[in-house]
What we know:
This protein has helices at about 1-20, 30-50, 55-75. By secondary structure, the protein is an all-alpha fold. Helix 1 (about 1-20) packs antiparallel against helix 2 (about 30-50) and helix 1 crosses helix 3. The protein has one domain (about 1-75).
Amino acid sequence: MRLQARELEGVFLTTLMKEMFSGIDTEASFAQETWRGMQAEHFATAMAEAGGVGLADSLMADLIALQESAARSTI
Protein backbone atom coordinates (compact mmCIF):
# COMPACT_ATOMS: atom_id res chain seq x y z
CA MET A 1 0.00 0.00 0.00
CA ARG A 2 2.84 2.39 0.86
CA LEU A 3 4.39 1.91 -2.59
CA GLN A 4 1.07 2.58 -4.31
CA ALA A 5 0.47 5.70 -2.22
CA ARG A 6 3.96 6.97 -3.05
CA GLU A 7 3.42 6.24 -6.76
CA LEU A 8 0.13 8.14 -6.72
CA GLU A 9 1.87 11.06 -5.05
CA GLY A 10 4.49 10.87 -7.83
CA VAL A 11 1.75 11.05 -10.48
CA PHE A 12 0.25 14.07 -8.73
CA LEU A 13 3.64 15.78 -8.46
CA THR A 14 4.37 15.02 -12.13
CA THR A 15 1.15 16.75 -13.14
CA LEU A 16 2.02 19.67 -10.90
CA MET A 17 5.55 19.96 -12.31
CA LYS A 18 4.31 19.75 -15.93
CA GLU A 19 1.88 22.60 -15.23
CA MET A 20 4.70 24.59 -13.69
CA PHE A 21 6.87 24.07 -16.77
CA SER A 22 3.99 24.93 -19.10
CA GLY A 23 4.00 28.42 -17.60
CA ILE A 24 7.44 29.08 -19.05
CA ASP A 25 6.88 31.12 -22.18
CA THR A 26 9.35 29.91 -24.80
CA GLU A 27 9.26 28.82 -28.39
CA ALA A 28 10.12 25.24 -27.51
CA SER A 29 10.72 22.60 -30.13
CA PHE A 30 9.23 19.12 -29.93
CA ALA A 31 12.50 17.85 -28.45
CA GLN A 32 12.49 20.53 -25.75
CA GLU A 33 8.87 19.77 -24.87
CA THR A 34 9.69 16.08 -24.62
CA TRP A 35 12.72 16.80 -22.46
CA ARG A 36 10.68 19.04 -20.17
CA GLY A 37 8.14 16.26 -19.69
CA MET A 38 10.88 13.80 -18.79
CA GLN A 39 12.49 16.35 -16.48
CA ALA A 40 9.17 16.97 -14.72
CA GLU A 41 8.72 13.21 -14.20
CA HIS A 42 12.26 12.88 -12.82
CA PHE A 43 11.83 15.82 -10.43
CA ALA A 44 8.46 14.52 -9.25
CA THR A 45 9.78 10.99 -8.69
CA ALA A 46 12.74 12.35 -6.72
CA MET A 47 10.43 14.51 -4.62
CA ALA A 48 8.08 11.61 -3.88
CA GLU A 49 10.96 9.31 -2.92
CA ALA A 50 12.40 12.00 -0.63
CA GLY A 51 9.16 12.24 1.31
CA GLY A 52 7.02 14.22 -1.07
CA VAL A 53 4.52 16.76 0.15
CA GLY A 54 2.71 14.46 2.57
CA LEU A 55 0.09 13.20 0.15
CA ALA A 56 1.25 9.57 0.43
CA ASP A 57 0.96 9.70 4.24
CA SER A 58 -2.56 11.07 4.00
CA LEU A 59 -3.50 8.43 1.44
CA MET A 60 -2.07 5.68 3.66
CA ALA A 61 -4.29 6.73 6.55
CA ASP A 62 -7.34 6.68 4.28
CA LEU A 63 -6.41 3.33 2.71
CA ILE A 64 -5.87 1.72 6.11
CA ALA A 65 -9.22 3.05 7.34
CA LEU A 66 -10.96 1.67 4.23
CA GLN A 67 -9.24 -1.69 4.64
CA GLU A 68 -10.28 -1.91 8.30
CA SER A 69 -13.83 -0.90 7.41
CA ALA A 70 -14.02 -3.58 4.72
CA ALA A 71 -12.63 -6.19 7.11
CA ARG A 72 -15.27 -5.32 9.74
CA SER A 73 -18.12 -5.48 7.24
CA THR A 74 -17.21 -9.02 6.14
CA ILE A 75 -17.26 -10.38 9.69
